[in-house]
Amino acid sequence: MQRKTLVLGLALMMATGCAAHVPMAPPAQDLAAKQFAPAQQTANLYVYRHEQFGYAVSMGVLLDGTWLGDTAAKTFLHLPIPPGEHRVISKAENTAEIVFAAEPGKNYFVWQEVKMGFAAPRSALHLVDEAEGRAAVTQCSLATTNASSHGAPAPGCTKDTDCKGDRICSAGACVAPAPAAPGVM
What we know:
The protein has two domains: 19-154, Immunoglobulin-like; 155-185, no CATH class. 17% of the residues lie in helices and 35% in strands. The chain is built from three helices and eleven strands. The strands form three sheets. The protein has a five-stranded mixed β-sheet with strand order 8-7-1-4-9, with helices on one face. A hairpin with a 6-residue loop joins strand 7 (107-115) and strand 8. The termini are far apart.
């Protein structure tokens, strides 16, 4: 019996240890975002991943060229945006992009679909209607965004530790480091 419990515990630890983790917003913010009530002068943007597929990978999201945040399985990002044209970019094995024109007082839902890739998952972005988007977002939890107090995305990074892996912060963006000169260690 103890052996079965040990094996089950190890399997559970391995399964949850592989899941991608992104910073989550407090429950009150999650609840407020799920009211789907944009201010009259702005629109609401929701970028979501409602499936379990690709649960082990987080994917970066940029809005108008500025890093917004990362998504994981069953998470969403929410941000009030000004009216006008906006570009959402998803970073995975590939770079997916969608452009739309936002109108004040409306909600916009972008599904960040996870697809099978060669070495890592790929993504595709789909602008979906309000009914489909609301239903999907209610199944997800709000991840934190890189938004300033004015609702616009803040610069992508301020220090190297804001970046993943071996990437470094350069002019507010996470970039690959320059290769070392020959003979320099």
